[in-house]
Amino acid sequence: MPRSVNAVASRARRKKVLKLAKGNFGSRSNVWTVAKNTVEKGLTYAYRDRKNKKRTFRSLWITRINAGARSHGMTYSEFMGKVHKAGIDLNRKVLADLAMNNPKAFEKVINTVK
């Protein structure tokens, strides 16, 4: 009996990888072995950077809150300590947005915690 190979599944698997490799330069987009390596590496970076994105945004929010707090004569750590002690349930994302886009509202928060 002849050997049966599942060509349909193999072709589909390769097509899926080559579709993900679309847009790469040269042989990285159309040579199977090169494209496979490129796609694997790209997916690894994508997974890693979804985690790093959270870290980066938190750092940005802290910087913005710090700048807003210092313009009112407080440091970031003093401000956040007083916010938690006052029981204000605003997260860093919201506080950073207030400091950046709505300075009047941020000033009210500062005056509340002082």
Beta-strand residue fraction: under 5%
Shape type? rod-shaped
Q: What separation lies between the terminal Cα atoms?
A: 86 Å
* Rg value: 26 Å
Q: What is the residue-averaged pLDDT?
A: 95
Number of helices: 5
Major sheet details:
none
The overall strand count is 0
- Uncertain regions spanning at least 5 consecutive residues: none
Would you tell me the structural class of the helices and strands? mainly alpha
SSE string:
HHHHH
Helix content: over 70%
Quickly list its features.
114 residues; mainly alpha; 5 helices; 75% helix; rod-shaped
Give an overview of the whole structure.
- With 114 residues, this protein is mainly α.
- Helices cover 75% and strands 0% of the residues.
- The chain has helices spanning 7-20, 32-70, 76-86, 92-101, 103-113.
- The protein is rod-shaped and about 85 Å long.
- The N and C termini lie far apart (86 Å).
- The mean pLDDT is 95.
Overview in brief:
With 114 residues, the chain is mainly α.
List the helices and strands and how they pair.
Layout: H1 7-20, H2 32-70, H3 76-86, H4 92-101, H5 103-113
